[in-house]
Amino acid sequence: MPWFEILVVAAQSIRANAFRAALTMLGVIIGVAAVITMVALGSGAQRAIDRELEALGANVLTINSGMWFQRGVSRQRDTLTIEDAEQLARDARHLVEVVPEMSLQEQLKAGNRNLSVSVTGTTPNYADVQAFGIAAGRMFSAADDAARRRVIVLGSDVPGMLDSTAETMIGRTVSIRSVPFEVVGVFAPKGSSGFRNPDDDAWIPLQTARFRVTGTDVVQAISVQVAPDSTLEQAMVDIERVLRRAHGILPGRDNDFAIFDRKTFLNTRAQATEIFTFLLAGIAGVSLIVGGIGIMNIMLVTVTERTREIGIRKALGATRGAVLLQFLVESVVLCTLGGLLGVLLGALVSALLARFAGWQTYVTAGSVLLSFGFAAAVGLVFGLMPARRAARMDPIEALRHE
Questions:
Q1: Which of 159, 208, 349, 370 has its CA at 20 to 30 Å from residue 75's CA atom?
Q2: Distance CA 20, CA 43 (A)
Q3: Same domain as 106, residue 204
Q4: Residue 87 — left, alpha, or beta (φ > 0 → left; ψ -120 to 50 → alpha)?
Q5: b or e along 186-195 (b: 16 or more beta carbons within 10 Å of the residue's beta carbon)?
Protein backbone atom coordinates (compact mmCIF):
# COMPACT_ATOMS: atom_id res chain seq x y z
CA MET A 1 0.00 0.00 0.00
CA PRO A 2 1.52 3.37 -1.03
CA TRP A 3 2.47 5.83 1.69
CA PHE A 4 -0.02 8.41 0.45
CA GLU A 5 -2.86 5.92 0.64
CA ILE A 6 -1.81 4.87 4.13
CA LEU A 7 -1.91 8.49 5.28
CA VAL A 8 -5.33 9.01 3.65
CA VAL A 9 -6.73 5.93 5.38
CA ALA A 10 -5.26 7.11 8.73
CA ALA A 11 -6.80 10.57 8.29
CA GLN A 12 -10.18 9.05 7.40
CA SER A 13 -10.07 6.84 10.48
CA ILE A 14 -9.24 9.79 12.74
CA ARG A 15 -11.94 11.96 11.14
CA ALA A 16 -14.54 9.20 11.57
CA ASN A 17 -13.92 9.31 15.34
CA ALA A 18 -12.96 12.96 15.71
CA PHE A 19 -14.14 13.43 19.29
CA ARG A 20 -12.42 10.27 20.51
CA ALA A 21 -9.27 11.28 18.63
CA ALA A 22 -9.34 14.71 20.29
CA LEU A 23 -9.61 13.15 23.75
CA THR A 24 -6.82 10.73 22.83
CA MET A 25 -4.54 13.58 21.79
CA LEU A 26 -5.29 15.62 24.91
CA GLY A 27 -2.56 13.99 26.98
CA VAL A 28 0.02 14.60 24.25
CA ILE A 29 -1.15 18.21 23.79
CA ILE A 30 -0.84 18.95 27.50
CA GLY A 31 2.52 17.19 27.75
CA VAL A 32 4.08 19.01 24.80
CA ALA A 33 2.64 22.37 25.93
CA ALA A 34 4.05 21.81 29.42
CA VAL A 35 7.50 20.94 28.07
CA ILE A 36 7.51 23.98 25.75
CA THR A 37 6.42 26.30 28.57
CA MET A 38 8.92 24.96 31.13
CA VAL A 39 11.84 25.12 28.70
CA ALA A 40 10.74 28.63 27.62
CA LEU A 41 10.82 29.77 31.25
CA GLY A 42 14.28 28.28 31.71
CA SER A 43 15.58 29.78 28.48
CA GLY A 44 14.12 33.15 29.40
CA ALA A 45 15.84 33.01 32.79
CA GLN A 46 19.12 32.09 31.11
CA ARG A 47 18.84 35.02 28.69
CA ALA A 48 18.11 37.33 31.62
CA ILE A 49 21.25 36.07 33.39
CA ASP A 50 23.27 36.61 30.21
CA ARG A 51 22.00 40.19 30.02
CA GLU A 52 22.87 40.73 33.68
CA LEU A 53 26.38 39.42 33.06
CA GLU A 54 26.77 41.72 30.09
CA ALA A 55 25.47 44.66 32.09
CA LEU A 56 27.69 43.91 35.09
CA GLY A 57 30.76 43.37 32.97
CA ALA A 58 32.44 40.00 32.72
CA ASN A 59 35.85 41.47 33.57
CA VAL A 60 34.82 43.44 36.66
CA LEU A 61 35.68 42.33 40.19
CA THR A 62 34.31 43.81 43.41
CA ILE A 63 36.32 44.07 46.63
CA ASN A 64 34.28 44.24 49.82
CA SER A 65 35.26 44.75 53.43
CA GLY A 66 35.82 41.57 55.41
CA MET A 67 33.34 39.95 57.78
CA TRP A 68 33.77 39.09 61.45
CA PHE A 69 31.58 37.10 63.81
CA GLN A 70 30.32 38.18 67.19
CA ARG A 71 28.16 35.76 69.18
CA GLY A 72 27.35 33.84 66.02
CA VAL A 73 26.27 36.94 64.06
CA SER A 74 28.29 38.07 61.05
CA ARG A 75 29.16 41.75 60.84
CA GLN A 76 31.03 43.76 58.24
CA ARG A 77 34.23 45.54 59.19
CA ASP A 78 35.19 48.86 57.64
CA THR A 79 38.59 47.82 56.34
CA LEU A 80 38.70 49.50 52.92
CA THR A 81 39.62 53.13 52.38
CA ILE A 82 40.12 55.56 49.53
CA GLU A 83 43.86 55.10 50.03
CA ASP A 84 43.46 51.37 49.27
CA ALA A 85 41.85 52.25 45.95
CA GLU A 86 44.65 54.69 45.16
CA GLN A 87 47.26 52.06 46.00
CA LEU A 88 45.57 49.50 43.76
CA ALA A 89 45.54 52.03 40.92
CA ARG A 90 49.28 52.62 41.42
CA ASP A 91 50.64 49.14 42.14
CA ALA A 92 48.30 46.54 40.63
CA ARG A 93 49.64 45.34 37.27
CA HIS A 94 46.54 43.54 35.98
CA LEU A 95 43.96 46.31 36.50
CA VAL A 96 43.03 49.14 34.16
CA GLU A 97 40.36 50.91 36.25
CA VAL A 98 39.80 51.21 40.00
CA VAL A 99 36.50 52.63 41.26
CA PRO A 100 35.99 53.17 45.02
CA GLU A 101 32.36 53.26 46.17
CA MET A 102 31.28 55.02 49.35
CA SER A 103 27.68 53.94 49.91
CA LEU A 104 25.14 55.40 52.30
CA GLN A 105 21.37 55.26 52.66
CA GLU A 106 20.00 58.79 52.79
CA GLN A 107 16.90 60.87 52.35
CA LEU A 108 16.84 62.79 49.08
CA LYS A 109 14.61 65.87 49.16
CA ALA A 110 13.28 67.71 46.14
CA GLY A 111 10.65 70.34 46.86
CA ASN A 112 7.98 68.71 48.97
CA ARG A 113 9.02 65.19 47.95
CA ASN A 114 11.22 63.01 50.13
CA LEU A 115 12.79 59.73 48.95
CA SER A 116 14.96 57.15 50.66
CA VAL A 117 17.71 56.32 48.19
CA SER A 118 21.10 54.67 48.17
CA VAL A 119 23.67 57.38 47.49
CA THR A 120 27.10 56.34 46.23
CA GLY A 121 30.14 58.56 46.33
CA THR A 122 32.42 57.46 43.53
CA THR A 123 34.77 58.57 40.77
CA PRO A 124 33.84 59.72 37.23
CA ASN A 125 34.96 56.41 35.65
CA TYR A 126 32.16 54.59 37.49
CA ALA A 127 29.77 54.89 34.55
CA ASP A 128 32.25 53.35 32.10
CA VAL A 129 33.29 50.48 34.35
CA GLN A 130 29.71 49.60 35.33
CA ALA A 131 28.41 50.11 31.76
CA PHE A 132 25.93 52.87 32.60
CA GLY A 133 24.49 54.99 29.82
CA ILE A 134 23.43 58.63 30.16
CA ALA A 135 19.78 59.40 29.41
CA ALA A 136 20.03 63.15 30.05
CA GLY A 137 22.75 65.59 31.08
CA ARG A 138 26.22 64.27 31.86
CA MET A 139 28.32 62.29 34.33
CA PHE A 140 30.17 64.42 36.85
CA SER A 141 33.79 65.06 35.85
CA ALA A 142 37.20 64.69 37.46
CA ALA A 143 37.16 68.48 37.96
CA ASP A 144 33.86 68.18 39.85
CA ASP A 145 35.40 65.51 42.07
CA ALA A 146 38.63 67.42 42.72
CA ALA A 147 36.72 70.64 43.53
CA ARG A 148 34.25 68.75 45.75
CA ARG A 149 31.36 70.24 43.81
CA ARG A 150 27.85 69.45 45.00
CA VAL A 151 26.59 67.76 41.87
CA ILE A 152 24.55 64.57 41.59
CA VAL A 153 23.56 61.99 38.97
CA LEU A 154 20.25 60.19 39.43
CA GLY A 155 19.11 56.68 38.53
CA SER A 156 16.56 56.41 35.75
CA ASP A 157 13.58 55.77 38.09
CA VAL A 158 14.25 58.64 40.47
CA PRO A 159 12.81 61.45 38.28
CA GLY A 160 9.53 59.53 38.00
CA MET A 161 9.41 59.18 41.79
CA LEU A 162 9.72 62.96 41.95
CA ASP A 163 6.89 63.43 39.41
CA SER A 164 9.37 64.69 36.84
CA THR A 165 11.27 63.52 33.77
CA ALA A 166 14.96 63.02 33.12
CA GLU A 167 15.20 66.15 30.99
CA THR A 168 13.35 68.44 33.40
CA MET A 169 15.44 67.24 36.37
CA ILE A 170 18.67 68.59 34.85
CA GLY A 171 19.65 71.79 36.68
CA ARG A 172 17.22 71.25 39.55
CA THR A 173 18.42 71.22 43.15
CA VAL A 174 17.95 68.31 45.53
CA SER A 175 19.33 67.99 49.04
CA ILE A 176 21.02 65.22 51.03
CA ARG A 177 21.57 65.78 54.76
CA SER A 178 20.50 69.38 54.15
CA VAL A 179 23.36 69.77 51.64
CA PRO A 180 22.07 71.07 48.29
CA PHE A 181 23.14 69.26 45.11
CA GLU A 182 22.62 70.25 41.51
CA VAL A 183 21.34 67.47 39.24
CA VAL A 184 23.74 67.27 36.31
CA GLY A 185 22.73 63.92 34.82
CA VAL A 186 20.31 61.00 34.78
CA PHE A 187 21.44 57.48 33.94
CA ALA A 188 19.68 55.36 31.34
CA PRO A 189 17.66 52.40 32.70
CA LYS A 190 19.93 49.65 33.94
CA GLY A 191 17.58 47.10 35.46
CA SER A 192 18.06 44.94 38.51
CA SER A 193 21.36 43.09 38.61
CA GLY A 194 20.19 40.49 41.09
CA PHE A 195 21.88 42.38 43.94
CA ARG A 196 19.90 45.63 43.91
CA ASN A 197 18.13 47.94 41.51
CA PRO A 198 20.53 50.77 40.58
CA ASP A 199 17.74 52.68 38.82
CA ASP A 200 16.55 53.81 42.26
CA ASP A 201 19.96 55.14 43.34
CA ALA A 202 21.95 58.36 43.11
CA TRP A 203 25.67 59.15 42.68
CA ILE A 204 27.85 62.04 43.84
CA PRO A 205 31.61 62.73 43.48
CA LEU A 206 33.78 60.73 45.88
CA GLN A 207 35.57 63.73 47.40
CA THR A 208 32.25 65.53 47.85
CA ALA A 209 30.88 62.52 49.73
CA ARG A 210 34.07 62.33 51.81
CA PHE A 211 34.35 65.95 52.89
CA ARG A 212 30.80 67.33 52.62
CA VAL A 213 28.57 64.37 53.56
CA THR A 214 30.26 61.55 55.51
CA GLY A 215 33.47 63.03 56.88
CA THR A 216 35.28 59.70 56.50
CA ASP A 217 37.56 58.05 53.96
CA VAL A 218 36.04 54.57 54.48
CA VAL A 219 34.57 52.94 51.39
CA GLN A 220 32.24 49.97 51.36
CA ALA A 221 33.46 48.50 48.07
CA ILE A 222 36.04 48.93 45.34
CA SER A 223 35.19 47.83 41.80
CA VAL A 224 38.09 47.05 39.50
CA GLN A 225 38.25 46.37 35.78
CA VAL A 226 40.68 43.67 34.73
CA ALA A 227 43.12 44.39 31.91
CA PRO A 228 42.13 42.82 28.56
CA ASP A 229 45.27 40.66 28.40
CA SER A 230 44.92 39.43 32.02
CA THR A 231 42.76 36.75 33.60
CA LEU A 232 40.47 37.16 36.56
CA GLU A 233 42.70 34.80 38.56
CA GLN A 234 45.78 36.96 37.88
CA ALA A 235 43.87 40.06 38.90
CA MET A 236 42.69 38.43 42.14
CA VAL A 237 46.25 37.47 43.08
CA ASP A 238 47.37 41.00 42.21
CA ILE A 239 44.66 42.59 44.38
CA GLU A 240 45.44 40.28 47.29
CA ARG A 241 49.15 41.08 47.06
CA VAL A 242 48.61 44.86 47.12
CA LEU A 243 45.94 44.95 49.83
CA ARG A 244 47.61 42.47 52.19
CA ARG A 245 50.75 44.59 52.05
CA ALA A 246 48.76 47.80 52.51
CA HIS A 247 46.90 46.37 55.52
CA GLY A 248 50.00 44.80 57.06
CA ILE A 249 48.53 41.29 57.12
CA LEU A 250 51.13 38.71 58.13
CA PRO A 251 51.60 35.44 56.20
CA GLY A 252 49.14 32.78 57.35
CA ARG A 253 46.58 35.33 58.53
CA ASP A 254 43.18 35.65 56.84
CA ASN A 255 42.37 38.57 54.57
CA ASP A 256 40.30 41.38 56.05
CA PHE A 257 38.64 41.89 52.66
CA ALA A 258 36.79 39.71 50.15
CA ILE A 259 37.12 39.63 46.37
CA PHE A 260 33.81 38.96 44.64
CA ASP A 261 33.61 37.64 41.08
CA ARG A 262 30.10 38.40 39.85
CA LYS A 263 30.58 36.23 36.77
CA THR A 264 31.08 33.15 38.94
CA PHE A 265 27.95 33.99 40.93
CA LEU A 266 25.85 34.37 37.80
CA ASN A 267 27.29 31.21 36.24
CA THR A 268 26.37 29.29 39.38
CA ARG A 269 22.88 30.70 39.21
CA ALA A 270 22.70 29.80 35.52
CA GLN A 271 23.64 26.20 36.32
CA ALA A 272 20.96 26.05 39.00
CA THR A 273 18.43 27.47 36.53
CA GLU A 274 19.42 24.91 33.92
CA ILE A 275 19.05 22.00 36.37
CA PHE A 276 15.68 23.37 37.50
CA THR A 277 14.55 23.68 33.87
CA PHE A 278 15.51 20.09 33.07
CA LEU A 279 13.72 18.92 36.21
CA LEU A 280 10.52 20.75 35.31
CA ALA A 281 10.72 19.62 31.68
CA GLY A 282 11.21 16.03 32.87
CA ILE A 283 8.15 16.26 35.09
CA ALA A 284 6.19 17.73 32.19
CA GLY A 285 7.48 14.93 29.97
CA VAL A 286 5.64 12.45 32.20
CA SER A 287 2.44 13.87 30.73
CA LEU A 288 3.66 12.76 27.31
CA ILE A 289 4.19 9.23 28.61
CA VAL A 290 0.69 9.23 30.10
CA GLY A 291 -0.64 10.53 26.80
CA GLY A 292 1.19 7.74 24.99
CA ILE A 293 -0.42 5.14 27.26
CA GLY A 294 -3.80 6.66 26.48
CA ILE A 295 -3.10 6.43 22.77
CA MET A 296 -2.07 2.77 23.14
CA ASN A 297 -5.32 1.98 24.94
CA ILE A 298 -7.44 3.71 22.32
CA MET A 299 -5.55 2.04 19.48
CA LEU A 300 -6.14 -1.36 21.12
CA VAL A 301 -9.86 -0.55 21.21
CA THR A 302 -9.67 0.56 17.57
CA VAL A 303 -8.04 -2.71 16.55
CA THR A 304 -10.84 -4.63 18.27
CA GLU A 305 -13.52 -2.52 16.59
CA ARG A 306 -11.95 -2.98 13.15
CA THR A 307 -11.28 -6.71 13.39
CA ARG A 308 -13.54 -7.58 10.43
CA GLU A 309 -11.90 -4.80 8.36
CA ILE A 310 -8.50 -6.29 9.15
CA GLY A 311 -9.75 -9.77 8.15
CA ILE A 312 -11.10 -8.49 4.83
CA ARG A 313 -7.83 -6.69 4.03
CA LYS A 314 -5.80 -9.78 4.82
CA ALA A 315 -8.14 -11.95 2.78
CA LEU A 316 -7.61 -9.58 -0.17
CA GLY A 317 -3.85 -9.98 0.10
CA ALA A 318 -2.70 -7.39 2.62
CA THR A 319 0.55 -8.45 4.27
CA ARG A 320 1.35 -8.33 7.96
CA GLY A 321 3.74 -5.46 7.30
CA ALA A 322 1.06 -3.43 5.51
CA VAL A 323 -1.45 -3.87 8.34
CA LEU A 324 1.19 -3.09 10.98
CA LEU A 325 2.27 0.02 9.08
CA GLN A 326 -1.30 1.25 8.70
CA PHE A 327 -2.06 1.21 12.44
CA LEU A 328 1.40 2.47 13.34
CA VAL A 329 0.95 5.45 11.02
CA GLU A 330 -2.44 6.21 12.60
CA SER A 331 -0.81 6.28 16.05
CA VAL A 332 2.05 8.48 14.87
CA VAL A 333 -0.36 10.86 13.09
CA LEU A 334 -2.42 11.20 16.29
CA CYS A 335 0.68 12.03 18.34
CA THR A 336 2.08 14.35 15.68
CA LEU A 337 -1.15 16.33 15.49
CA GLY A 338 -1.22 16.44 19.29
CA GLY A 339 2.40 17.58 19.29
CA LEU A 340 1.66 20.37 16.81
CA LEU A 341 -1.29 21.61 18.85
CA GLY A 342 0.82 21.29 22.02
CA VAL A 343 3.59 23.43 20.51
CA LEU A 344 1.05 26.14 19.63
CA LEU A 345 -0.52 25.96 23.08
CA GLY A 346 2.89 26.07 24.79
CA ALA A 347 3.97 29.10 22.74
CA LEU A 348 0.68 30.84 23.60
CA VAL A 349 1.02 30.11 27.33
CA SER A 350 4.64 31.35 27.27
CA ALA A 351 3.57 34.59 25.59
CA LEU A 352 0.76 35.09 28.11
CA LEU A 353 3.13 34.51 31.04
CA ALA A 354 5.56 37.05 29.61
CA ARG A 355 2.84 39.61 28.97
CA PHE A 356 0.67 39.37 32.08
CA ALA A 357 2.90 37.77 34.73
CA GLY A 358 6.07 39.61 33.71
CA TRP A 359 8.11 36.38 33.57
CA GLN A 360 11.06 36.03 31.22
CA THR A 361 10.19 33.43 28.55
CA TYR A 362 11.89 32.43 25.32
CA VAL A 363 10.65 29.65 23.03
CA THR A 364 13.63 28.11 21.27
CA ALA A 365 13.59 26.16 18.02
CA GLY A 366 15.42 23.34 19.81
CA SER A 367 12.66 22.93 22.40
CA VAL A 368 10.00 22.89 19.66
CA LEU A 369 11.84 20.24 17.62
CA LEU A 370 12.59 18.18 20.73
CA SER A 371 8.97 18.21 21.92
CA PHE A 372 7.61 17.54 18.45
CA GLY A 373 10.07 14.71 17.86
CA PHE A 374 9.38 13.21 21.29
CA ALA A 375 5.63 13.28 20.59
CA ALA A 376 6.17 11.40 17.32
CA ALA A 377 8.41 8.90 19.13
CA VAL A 378 5.69 8.35 21.75
CA GLY A 379 3.23 7.56 18.97
CA LEU A 380 5.71 5.14 17.41
CA VAL A 381 6.54 3.33 20.67
CA PHE A 382 3.05 3.13 22.14
CA GLY A 383 1.41 2.40 18.80
CA LEU A 384 3.65 -0.59 18.16
CA MET A 385 1.77 -3.04 20.42
CA PRO A 386 -1.70 -2.37 18.89
CA ALA A 387 -0.19 -2.45 15.40
CA ARG A 388 1.53 -5.79 16.06
CA ARG A 389 -1.71 -7.19 17.45
CA ALA A 390 -3.57 -6.18 14.31
CA ALA A 391 -0.84 -7.56 12.05
CA ARG A 392 -0.85 -10.96 13.79
CA MET A 393 -4.61 -11.54 13.50
CA ASP A 394 -5.69 -14.68 11.71
CA PRO A 395 -7.82 -13.58 8.71
CA ILE A 396 -10.36 -16.44 9.16
CA GLU A 397 -10.88 -15.65 12.85
CA ALA A 398 -11.08 -11.94 12.03
CA LEU A 399 -13.80 -12.50 9.42
CA ARG A 400 -15.85 -14.49 11.92
CA HIS A 401 -15.69 -11.60 14.42
CA GLU A 402 -19.03 -9.90 15.11
A1: 208
A2: 35
A3: yes
A4: alpha
A5: bbeebeebee
Which has more pLDDT, 293 or 53?
Answer: 293
Q: Which domain holds residue 310?
A: 3-52+267-400
What phi and psi, each to the nearest 5 degrees, are found at residue 46?
A: -65, -40
Full-prediction pTM beyond 0.85? Answer: no
d(CA 57, CA 256) in angstroms, rounded, equals 25
| 239 shares a domain with 91 | yes
Q: Is residue 65 part of a domain?
A: no
Asked whether residue 47 falls in the same domain as residue 191, the answer is: no
The radius of gyration of the chain's CA atoms, rounded to the nearest angstrom, is 33
Helices 3-16 and 320-352 cross at an angle (nearest 10°) of 60
| 175-211 confidence digits (pLDDT tens) | 998 899 999 999 999 876 555 688 999 999 999 999 9
Structural domains counted in the chain = 2
Q: What is the pLDDT of residues 284-301, one digit of tens each?
A: 667 777 777 777 887 777
Separation of alpha carbons 34 and 346, rounded Å: 6
